[in-house]
Amino acid sequence: QSGVLDITKFGGAPNSDISQAFTTAWNEACASTTAVKIMIPAGTYMLNGIDVKGPCKAPIEVQVDGTIQAPANQDEMKGADQWVKFMYVDQLTLSGKGVFDGQGETVWKQKTGGPAWSGKGPMSKVFMNFGFNFLNNTIIRDITSKDSKNFQVMVFSCHNITFDGFTISAPKDSPNTDGIHMGKSTDVKILNTNIGTGDDCISVGDGTKNLTIQNVNCGPGHGISIGSLGKFTTEENVEGVLVKNCTLTETDNGVRIKTWPNEPATLTISDLHFEDITMVNVRNPVIIDQEYCPWNQCNKQVFTKEPIYQMLSYID
User: Fold this and answer.
1) Domain 4-296, what fold?
2) Is Cell wall biogenesis/degradation one of the keywords (predicted)?
3) CA 97, CA 64: separation in Å to the nearest integer?
4) pTM for the full model?
5) Which of 66, 140, 162, 292 gives 258 a disulfide partner, CB atoms 3.0 to 4.6 angstroms apart?
6) How far is CA 243 from the centre of its chain?
7) Under 8 Å CB-to-CB from 139, ≥6 apart: which residues?
8) pLDDT of residue 305
9) Per-residue pLDDT tens for 25-52?
10) Catalytic residue selected from 159, 181, 222, 273
């Protein structure tokens, strides 16, 4: 079929490492002046950390129908913080019935309750399943992210990115496995998605504008969180968040806003709408925490000389 690149034609085979085969197929697709689909058929494959980079000349769809396994050993990633990292691509679609399995269980056992990852460097070097960075006009559809060692998905500096029919799965006691975390991104949609994990189902970082979360099921997990915000001077406002027709079941929290005390950033958090939210056995349904201070990383008794401006408006 014209415009279709099957990774088995590039040396990729079930029960083997397809890193090189996928990279070769991507490079060919990226150079094409017409739309191309890369296919990973049913089967189980191993994949090492890869950087999938643009810019490319035409739209690309990656259809995954198999199970892709990350290295179980963190050290094999050589310090990379994201397992499958897409960067600088316009008009990317990631689709299919496939599962990306981060094999996180071996790492979860070694994490402590604090901000540091025990034994081998900072937790930031424990890799996430997905990194979507500097992307425009992107769709992630029907894919499953499972058992990430760290955050499941990071969205950074993206414009017009949609998750539709996405699934995130990890045990409720898996540490630091936030479902989807985003920052510095505009026009983000998370639709018709099921998230069960060990930390926030969705966490909204600074610089997020025009975010829609609709028809999302969350649980287990820590709910839907805006923040934490205000820890660093470089942080940007959060504007325009709609959370609608969502169900949270057996979560620690429902919806919450977290800001640091004495924060150096002057932030505005505005135009937040929470509509038709169903909560079942949720411990803390609504939280606005303006003294968020995990692991005693701040001094709540010391006040800044200038007032901190935080505006919460249009909350339904």
Assistant:
1) Pectate Lyase C-like (2.160.20)
2) yes
3) 6
4) 0.91
5) 292
6) 17
7) 92, 93, 94, 95, 161, 162, 164
8) 35
9) 999 999 999 999 999 999 999 999 999 9
10) 222
Q: Give the span between the Cα atoms of 70 and 74, in whole angstroms.
A: 9
Q: Identify the three-state secondary structure at position 77.
A: helix
DSSP per position, 2-40: TTEEEGGGGT--TTSB-HHHHHHHHHHHHH-SS-EEEEE
Identify whether 273 is a catalytic site residue.
no
- The residues, any chain, with a CB within 8 Å of residue 62's CB and separated by 6 or more, are 37, 38, 40, 92, 93, 94, 95, 96
pLDDT tens digits for range 55-73: 999 999 999 999 999 999 8
240 three-class SS: strand
Q: What band does 299 get if pLDDT is binned at 50, 70 and 90?
A: low
Token pair of 219 as six digits: 């649980």
Tell me the pLDDT tens digit for each residue of 172-215.
Answer: 999 999 999 999 999 999 999 999 999 999 999 999 999 999 99
